[in-house]
Amino acid sequence: MSKKKILCLFDVDGTITRARQVIDPEMNEFLISVIKPLSALGLVGGSDFNKIAEQMNGSDIIHRFDFVFAENGLVYYKYGKEGPRQSIEKHLTEDDLQRFINYCLHCLSKLRLPKKRGTFIEFRSGMINVSPIGRSCSQEDRDAFELYDKMHNVRQSMIDELKKEFTDIDLTYSIGGQISFDVYPHGWDKTYCLRHLESEGFDEIHFFGDKTEKGGNDHEIFNDSRVIGHKVTNPDDTRRILKELFKL
Question: Does Metal-binding show up as a keyword for this record (predicted)?
Fold first, then answer.
C-alpha cells in the first residue's frame, strides 16, 4: 500500500483517544512512526479545532497528520495549511437560529437530571452543540451522564422533540461523545470533509469510527460509498484493525 494512494481517516473520541481524553503517547507514536509511512493520515471530528488539538496533544497536529477536519470539515487543514471556512451563520437566517436556540433553552429548562452544570449550548462554525448536563461538567459527571442517558434516552428524546418543532428547517441531529448532540444543516455531517479530498487521488479511504449506528455522528461517513468503513470500540481496537489492514 502506498502512502500516496491510501488515506486512513480517524474519528477522535472513542477511536484514537478515550472520550475527551488526550491521546495516549503510545497510540500517537504508533500512528506517526508505524502507520504514516504506509498511509496518509487524517482526522475528522465534530469538535472545534482547539478541542481536537487539545486531545491530540498540541496544535502541531496539523503537521503530524496530513489532514485535520474540525467541525466535520467546515474548518480544515491540508498539509499544515488552513482552507476556506464555512459557517452555519451563512446558511441559516438569524431568525431561525434564535428561534432554534430559544427552543433548546426551553427544553433544557424543563429537564430534570441528577446533575446540571454550565455551557448547555455551544455555537460553532458549522453546528450547534447541545449538552443537557452542560459541557463544564467533570469527567466523573460525564461518565455518570453517559450511563444515565443509556437508560433514559435523554439526548434522543430531546432530538425527537426538536425534530417535531422544526420541520421547516432542514437540520440533521447527531449524537456523539458522552454528553451532547450536534445540530447542523443537512449534508454537513462528517461526509462534508470528503469534498476536500476529491482532488487528492486516493485509491482507498479507510474511515475508523465508534459511533457508526444510525443517529451516531460517524454513521453517514461510515456508510458512504467513497470510504471503506471500520467500526471500532476503543483505541486498542483501532490499533488492532490497523495491524490487520497493513499486515503488521
Answer: yes
Asked if CATH classification 3.40.50.1000 holds for the domain at 6-86+189-245, the reply, yes or no, is yes
User: Residue 8: enclosing H or E segment and its boundaries?
Assistant: strand 6-10
Q: 239 a known binding residue?
A: no
* Residue 222 annotated as binding site: yes
Per-residue pLDDT of the chain (248 residues; tens, 9 = 90+): 445 689 999 999 999 999 879 999 999 999 999 999 999 999 999 888 999 999 999 999 999 999 999 999 999 999 999 999 888 888 899 999 999 999 999 999 999 999 999 999 999 888 899 999 999 999 999 999 999 999 999 999 999 999 999 999 999 998 878 999 999 999 899 999 999 999 999 999 999 999 999 888 899 999 999 999 999 999 999 999 999 999 99
For the chain, the domains span: 6-86+189-245, 88-185
| HSE-CB for 180 with a 13 A CA cutoff | 24
Tell me how crowded residue 118 is: count the other CB atoms within 10 A of its CB: 10
CATH code of domain 88-185: 3.30.1240.20
Is 182 known to sit in a ligand binding site? yes
Q: Which residues are catalytic?
A: 11, 13
Q: Are 137 and 114 in contact (CB under 8 A)?
A: no
Stated pTM of the model: 0.77
